[in-house]
Amino acid sequence: MLETRDLTIRFGGHVAVNSVSCAFAPGTLTAIVGPNGAGKTTYFNLISGQLKASAGTVSLDGHSLSGLSPSARTHAGLGRAFQLTNLFPNLTVLENVRLAVQATRDGAHRRGLNLWSIWSDHKALTERADQILAEVALKSREHATVASLPHGDQRKLEVALLMALEPKVFMFDEPTAGMNAAEAPVILDLIRKLKKDKTKTILLVEHKMDVVRELADRIIVLHNGTLVADGEPAEVIASPVVQEAYLGVSKEAA
C-alpha cells in the first residue's frame, strides 16, 4: 500500500500541492487528472523524491519513504517513468535495458567471480533484457543507439526501463505524450498487461479522458494543488466539481 498523508509543498507563497492524503492499494490503477497547473506532476515528484515536501509523509507498505533519496525510493519499490531523463543516449537500446535489469539483481557481475560465472550471469541479464524489449516492440532496434531513436521509440524504451526495475508501484506521467496514433497502443497494451498483476499498484497521470475511462479503476482529481474528487471513474467524471474544474463546464450547465 502506497500512502501519502497531508503531503504539501510550497514555493514561496504558492502552495503547489496542498495537504493531499491518499492511499493506493495493490491491484488498482488510479488515474490522477486535473487541469494544467493542478499539481499532478508535482505530486508525482513528491512521491518519488524528486522534490522535498514542505510537510506530510510518503510511505510504502507501512515503511516511511520521507527523507529518502529518489534512488533509495526506487530500491524500496517505487518505479517512476522519468520522461527520457534516465536514458543513456550514447548506449544501445539493449545496453540501457540490461543495465536496468542488472541494477535489481544479485549475481556474478556484483561479486567478481570467475569468467565462466560472469559470462553465464551476463547471458541471463541479456536474455531478460531481450524479453522486455520484445514486450515493448523494440527488439528490432536493440543495437541502435538511444540518441538515434525517434521520440515514440524513446518513450517505449522509458517504459522498458521501468519494467526492468520490477517495482511494486508503477508511476506513469502521460506515457503516450508525443506519440502518434500507431505508437500509443503499444504503451497502452503494456499498461493493460501490468494491470493483470494484482500485486502491483499503478498511478497514471493522463489528459486523454478516453484512456482514463478505459484503464482506471479509480480517479482522483487535483485542482490548484488540492484533492477535490476521489472515486470510481463514472462517478467522478460526472461530478459538478470535475465538470467545472477539469472539463470547463459551469455548475449550472452540469
Secondary-structure-based class equals alpha/beta
Beta-strand fraction estimate: 15-25%
Instruction: Characterize the quaternary organization of these chains.
Output: single chain
The domain tally reads 2
Which CATH C-level class of the largest domain is it?
Alpha Beta
* Mean pLDDT score: 86
Number of helices: 10
Low-confidence stretches: 107-119, 250-254
* N-to-C SSE string, H for helix and E for strand: EEEHEEHEHHHHEHEHEEHH
Q: Give the CATH architecture of the largest domain.
A: 3-Layer(aba) Sandwich
Shape: globular
Helix content: 25-40%
Domain ABC transporter: 2-249
Pfam families: ABC_tran, BCA_ABC_TP_C
GO cellular component, one term: plasma membrane
InterPro entries: AAA+_ATPase, ABC_AA/LPS_Transport, ABC_transporter-like_ATP-bd, BCA_ABC_TP_C, P-loop_NTPase
Name the features.
single chain, 254 residues, alpha/beta, Rossmann fold, 2 domains, 6-stranded mixed β-sheet, 4-stranded antiparallel β-sheet, 10 helices, 23% strand, globular, disordered C terminus, ATP binding
